[in-house]
Structure formats: C-alpha cells, structure tokens
Amino acid sequence: MRYAASILFFLVLTIGLFTLLGSKDPVIAEHPVQVEHHLINAVTDTRHDESDVAAHHISQAPMNAKLEKALHDKLAEAQMVSMPMHGVRELSLSAKRDTNFYGNIGKEANPPPLDREGYAAKTENRFMSVALSPLSTFGLEVDSASYSNVRRQINQGQIPVPASVRLEELVNYFDYSFPSPTDDHPLAVISDYAVAPWNPEHRLAMIGVKAVDTTDASERGARITFLLDTSGSMNSANKLPLLIRSFQTLLSNLQVHDQVAIVTYAGSAGVVLPPTPVTERGRIQQALANLSAGGSTAGGAGLALAYDVARRQYDEKATNLVILATDGDFNVGASSDGELRTMIEKQRASGVFLSVIGMGSGNYQDAKMQVLAEAGNGVAHYLDSDAEAQRLFGAELTRTLHVAAKDVKIQVEFNPAAVAQYRLLGYESRVMNAEDFRDDKKDSGEVGAGHSVVALYEIIPTGSAAAPDIERRYQTVRKAGTHAMELGFVKIRYKRPSGDNGVEFAHAMTTRAKLIESATPDLRWAAAVAEFSLVMSQSEYSGSATIHGALRRATTVLPLLPDDKRSEFISLLKKLTTPRIAQE
User: Fold this and answer.
1) Mind listing the pLDDT tens digit for each residue in 41-80?
2) In sequence order, what DSSP letters do the residues of 255-297 get, joined into one string?
3) Cα distance between residue 204 and residue 527, in whole Å
4) What's residue 560's pLDDT?
5) Euclidean distance between CA atoms 250 and 381, whole angstroms
6) Is 378 exposed, middle or buried (0-12, 13-18, 19+ CB in 10 A)?
7) Which residues form the VWFA domain (predicted)?
8) pLDDT band at 4 (very low <50, low <70, confident <90, very high)
9) Which residues, including other chains, have CB under 8 Å from residue 523's CB and lie 6 or more apart?
10) Residue 425 pLDDT > 80, yes or no?
C-alpha cells in the first residue's frame, strides 16, 4: 500500500509538470538561448506591425496531432528505404491504399507508379565545425526542376519520392525582392539572419543574390537549337503534345532577331528544321506540327547532332543554346551518365550552353537530367503543365534563355567568435573544395538574367555547442577589431557569359539575429519552403519542422510578397493538411 501511494504521488507530480510545461507557449522571445557569447547572435524583436505580431502567434498555434501523425506515419514507411532507387514502388502503392490521405486530390484516377523513375542518391550536408572547417564553398545554381516535379507528384495524389526533393531548387523556384546590382558586377548580394524556425537554439542565415535584368547577349538575341525526344516513351499526353504546345508558346514570345533550329531523335537523329529566323513562324510551326513519337531513344546521337547544328548558327554576340526536352529514358548509343557527361563537357567548349527540360510520369529519369544540365553549363527544368510552359517561355523567358553570369561560386568564411557549427541547406551536388574557388577550370552553376537566388545556412552559435576536442601545434590568432560583429565573410566569383577569367567581389554578413517573424519577408518565405523541404525529404536535421508550420509561415508572408507562384505553393501545402487547418 505504501509503494502504491508513492507511485500515485509521482504520477500526480509528473502530470502536473507536463500540464505546467504544456501551458507555456515555446516562443523563443520568452525563452531565449541563455548562453550567447557573441552579440550578433543575441535575438532582437523588431516587430512593429500588427500583422507581424499576429504571424508570430499564428505560427506557434498548436499542431493538429492527428494530421501530423498521419503524415509522419506515411513518411515513416518511406524511411525504411535507404536508397532512393529502391522501395519507391512500395511507397507509391502505400499512397494508393490510403486514397483519403490527400483527400483524393489527384487529377489522374490511376497515376503511373513511381518505381521506374530515376533519382540520384543524396547525402545531406552535415554540420561542420568552424574550428576545423571555417570555409564553405559551393557553386550557385537556379534549377527549378525539383519544385515542378514535386508539384506533379502531389497533384497526382502521391507522396513525393524523398530523393526528388532538392531543397535549393524548391527555394529558388520563387522570386525575391533583392536589390539589383548598382555597380559593374552583374550580381548583387545581401544577407539576413534570424532564429531557425525548426530549432529555436539554432539560427538561419540567408545569402541572397540578384542578377541584372538584361545582358548584352539578351539585347542581341538568341540562337536556339531545340533537341526533341520523339521516341516511343514520349507518346503520351503529358509528353510530346505538351512539349509541342510549350515550344509554340516560346515561339510566340521570341524576338524578330532570334533564330531557331529543330533536331529530333528516336532510333536515329535527324534535322527537322535547319537554322531559321523566327520571322518565318509558319515554317517553324509546321515543323512542330509534323512531329510524332515512336522508336527507341538515341539520346547521345541526338546531342552530338544538336551541338553540330548549334555551331552552324553560332553568333558570338548572342546567346547560343541547345534546349533538350526528354523524359531522359536514353537506351541507344551513348547513354550512361559518364559517357554523356564526357561528351557534353567537350562540346561546351564551343560556347554553346545546354539546358534541359524533363517531363513525364512513370519513367522520368531525373538523375540523368541533372547530369546533362550540370555538364552543359545550363539549367534543369521540369515541365508538368501548360501553366509551367507559360512561366518558362513567357513571363520568365529572359532568365530561361539568357545567362547573366556563369560558373558562379560562393565561399563563406565563418567567424569562429560567432559560429560554432554551420550546415549548408541543399546544394549537395554543388559543394566544392576550398581550393576550387579560384580555380577557373572548375565548372560551376549559371545565373540567368533577372534571376534571384537564395542560399541558406543553419547556424549553431558559439557557446551553444561543445567545441571540438582538438589540439593544434600551430595556432592562428586574430584580433577582434572591426570584424567582431561579422557572422561571416562572403566571397562571390563568377565569369561573364563570354569570358574565361573569374571576377571576384565580397560581402560581409553583419546583420544581428532576430525572431523569424522580424526577418525580411524574403527570409521568412525561404524558411517556409525550406521547412517543407526538410519534412518531405525526410531530413535527419528537420528538428521540429512540420508541414503545418510551413503553411502557417507561408500564409502570413503571402500578403507581403503576393504572386501566383506563392499562392500555388500554399495550395499545395493545404492539400497535405486537413480541411480545418486549410481554412484557418
């Protein structure tokens, strides 16, 4: 009886403690990190607008436990799969068994299974110690393929394959209100710094890059060689017919000084349309109308012929571009990733860029698309709808076709007085060695005219984590001086579109930490998309990230940065939540 009373006492005490803790709203303004050894990490609350205050409280609203459990249960099934190319069929079939999980949102009654889609295995960037690795170096990129592909999977009522979620591509699908360059450089850089939404003891640093709206080449025009996959695998409504309509949209937006050619490949490659001025629209439209799908896929031969045609219409003062449109299912001739990369790297020396448009469901080879675009100094897109075609070839045509800067690299030197550890979010395939930064032979990413690009770092402030247990024979001691309030020093290196020599400039990150609700709308939006990406990619660093939290944050930012792409993103997130949450 005495033991029973003791047990009962401890139960009552435990329940009381949980009740007390549960009544507290875990807002970091009330519970700031107690150990801060550097002023730049001290959290400030600069909110003055009532909408910001409301956003703060909304974002801390209680979770819908049933929703979160359903989502995590579904993602847990996928976590049994360690490699992206295995077990995808099981995940797809699991989603089909529970058709109410997404509220029957898919437009396709029976979307094709995802088991033949190819995604590269991805190892997440980990936290790096500033004491051991103070430099972070990577190539900037503006690919948007991952966002459109994730959108396609959600709209089909399927759970996106985790390996298909590339955080940097989702974040960079959107436009940001960064200031344009005001000097001789084609790029401008800004930064912001706030509390990480998914871990209140961590910080989130944003580096924002904005490119000039026009370039000399964009004023001179474009010489475009379409390379179109017309093999049998393209014979479906969401492939070749969509592709033809998309290029008709492109033609309607090109300028009179532009010129196009069309190469197709199936069992063999052939020239359907030699270099032709856009003014001869009837001739070009007829060539597109005559296309049909059938046969095997000789992608390597098609690429070789397309580059040959591109050199025939080459203009050193214009943009010279091959646009490859395919589902990536190459099976004749040179088809391995290694063979194709070697071929394209040799061809790009001619000054012709290669951009890739992936499409289709069921057998889409995303990994191959990434290899082709990276090797060809171009950008990877995914075409899932006529609306996406209007974006790529209408509203954003200049950035789709014209490059403002190529081989863009970023190197950040973190201040050990402020940063204990850092983690680059995304860009896994673009991470470089520190010595590659000034090696102009090392290829990197391209930034299109008018494009805005974001890179995010999750920061563990000095004093919040144990220092590495290392002993050094040789020490480097720096005086605090004028650099005491710097989080890090950012160096940007790039080449002009027609140049071979790197140009460099720098930016000091000096913004003090703040509540995420006090950050710029740009950082708040990027944080919402990043949080969504961490959940859907099953990141081991997701902390307390939830779809619900991403939706709350995105919804409060939308009035400040209104556009159709952001509205669509919010709609996608609502499809992953219950109707009650969507209406709040």
Assistant:
1) 888 776 644 344 333 333 333 344 444 455 555 555 444 3
2) -TT-EEEEEEESSSEEEEEEEEETT-HHHHHHHHHT----S--
3) 8
4) 96
5) 15
6) buried
7) 223-401
8) low
9) 192, 194, 204, 206, 516
10) yes
Report how far residue 489's alpha carbon sits from residue 70's, in angstroms, rounded to the nearest whole number: 43
CB 406 within 8 A of CB 381: no
**Where does the pLDDT of residue 100 fall: very low under 50, low under 70, confident under 90, or very high at 90 and above?**
very low
3-state secondary structure 476-539: CCCCCHHHCCCCEEEEEEEECCCCCCCEEEEEEECCCCECHHHCCHHHHHHHHHHHHHHHHCCC
Q: What is the DSSP letter of 44?
A: B
Whether the Cβ atoms of residue 302 and residue 229 lie closer than 8 Å to each other? yes
Q: Are strands 259-265 and 269-277 parallel, antiparallel or unpaired?
A: antiparallel
CA distance 510 to 190: 10
Query: Does residue 237 register a pLDDT over 80?
Result: yes
Distances (CA, A) of 496 to 188, 198, 318: 14, 38, 13
Handedness of CA 440, 441, 447, 448 (dihedral sign): positive
Burial of 512 (0-12, 13-18, 19+ CB in 10 A): middle
Given this model, what pLDDT does residue 337 score?
73
User: What's the whole-number mean pLDDT along residues 503-525?
Assistant: 95
Phi-psi region of 56 (alpha: psi -120 to 50; beta: other; left: phi over 0): alpha
Distance CA 541, CA 355 (A): 32
Which of the two residues, 347 and 70, has the higher pLDDT score? 347
Query: Alpha helix (H) ranges present in 48-191?
Result: 50-59, 65-79, 88-97, 145-155, 167-171
Backbone angles phi, psi at 314, to 5 degrees: -65, 135
Q: Which of 443, 382, 377 is nearest to 164 (CA)?
A: 382
Tell me the C-alpha distance between 287 and 274, whole Å. Answer: 10
- Work out the end-to-end distance of the chain between its first and last CA atoms, rounded to an integer number of angstroms: 50
Distances 296 to 293, 307, 328, 555 between C-alpha atoms, Å: 10, 21, 12, 46
> 470: exposed, middle or buried (C-beta count within 10 Å: 0-12, 13-18, 19+)?
exposed
Amino acid at 553: R
Poorest-pLDDT segment among 57-71, 220-234, 467-481, 538-552: 57-71
Q: Supply the pTM of this predicted model.
A: 0.82
Q: How confident is the model over 110-123, as pLDDT tens digits?
A: 677 677 888 998 89
Torsion, Cα 562 563 568 574, to 10 degrees, reads 0
The Cα 414–Cα 509 span in angstroms is 9
Strand-pair category, 319-326 with 353-359: parallel
Q: Under a CB-based contact definition with an 8 Å cutoff, are residues 541 and 124 in contact?
A: yes
Q: What is the pLDDT of residue 333?
A: 53
Q: Given the DSSP bridges, would you call strands 380-383 and 353-359 parallel, antiparallel or unpaired?
A: parallel
Which residues are CB-contacts of 513 (< 8 A; sequence separation ≥ 6)?
Answer: 40, 41, 42, 43, 44, 193, 194, 195, 203, 461
- Report how far residue 95's alpha carbon sits from residue 167's, in angstroms, rounded to the nearest whole number: 23
Beta sheet of 128-129, edge-to-edge order: 128-129, 419-425, 452-461, 199-211, 187-196
**Radius of gyration of the chain from Cα atoms?**
25
CA pair distance 290, 158, nearest whole angstrom? 34
| The residue count for the chain | 584
